[in-house]
Write a structure and sequence with these properties.
Helices cover 45% and strands 14% of the residues. By secondary structure, the protein is α+β, with helices and mostly antiparallel strands. It starts with 18 loop residues before the first helix and ends in a 7-residue tail after the last strand. The longest helix is centred in the first third of the chain and has 33 residues, at 45-77. Helix 4 (124-137) packs across helix 5. It is built from 6 helices and 5 strands, in the order H-H-E-E-H-H-E-H-E-H-E. A 5-stranded mixed β-sheet has the order 1-2-5-3-4. 37% of the residues are buried. It has helices at residues 19-38, 45-77, 111-114, 124-137, 157-177, 201-207; strands at 96-100, 105-110, 144-150, 184-188, 209-215.
Length: 222
């Protein structure tokens, strides 16, 4: 379960464009209002609740906008669009999927465009895509990056665990090696988190992937 954020593939986490900004503003306003009420004396409580709500809304909106903006910039750099459909990862015609969730941005790279068979080293084309991701992250030094590798179920679990980890680690190393100050983590999941049953060649191709999660801060990391 630790291989992916909570709510992975949960349609309830999909939000329309701009919704992260609105949600952040709402939660920020509530939190600010509560804090303003707690820290105020009775005579000024109403005023401080209002001030806390306004300030919290601004901070929350900025948080949400940052996610919206990062998703849009990543999609543009990778020559695709932001796709928040719950079935986006199941489209075999898409090699790259960029989605924004409530608390993070998710980028999925298909195995066929990332690696040669049984290889853990990104192809030149994949290296170019990884460099584009790194260039966007230069503008978001606070973003925490988690790279996760997945395989199909051919071969032993241990072999696939090592392969998925090496692939994630190599991608993470390329991102970190670009000189960004961001925290970057890597994890391999073998075939623990299949999108679909490994019953056909097409399904196996969907399950072989590398996912990059972009979190705005430590509190958002699952």
């Amino acid at each position: 379960a630790g291989c992916t954020p909570a709510g992975y593939n949960n349609p309830s986490l999909n939000v329309p464009a701009g919704q992260n900004t609105k949600t952040g503003a709402i939660y920020g306003a509530i939190a600010g209002a509560v804090l303003g009420g707690i820290t105020s004396g009775k005579s000024h409580r109403g005023k401080h609740i209002l001030q806390g709500a306004v300030l919290g809304a601004g901070v929350g909106a900025a948080y949400g906008y940052s996610l919206d903006r990062q998703a849009a910039e990543m999609a543009n750099a990778l020559d695709t669009n932001v796709d928040n459909s719950p079935n986006a990862q199941l489209n075999p015609n898409k090699d790259i999927i960029v989605s924004k969730r409530v608390n993070y941005v998710q980028i999925t790279f298909r195995d066929k465009m990332m690696f040669e068979s049984n290889s853990a080293y990104p192809t030149p084309s994949a290296s170019d895509k990884i460099a584009r991701v790194s260039s966007i992250l230069q503008r978001y030094p606070q973003t925490i990056v988690q790279v996760v590798g997945h395989t199909d179920n051919r071969g032993s679990y241990e072999y696939n665990l090592n392969l998925s980890h090496q692939r994630a680690r190599n991608v993470a190393s390329m991102i970190k090696g670009s000189g960004i100050p961001n925290k970057v983590f890597a994890k391999g999941c073998s075939y623990n988190k299949s999108l679909v049953p490994n019953t056909t060649a097409q399904n196996m191709a969907l399950n072989r992937r590398v996912e990059i999660y972009l979190y705005p801060n430590q509190q958002a990391v699952v």
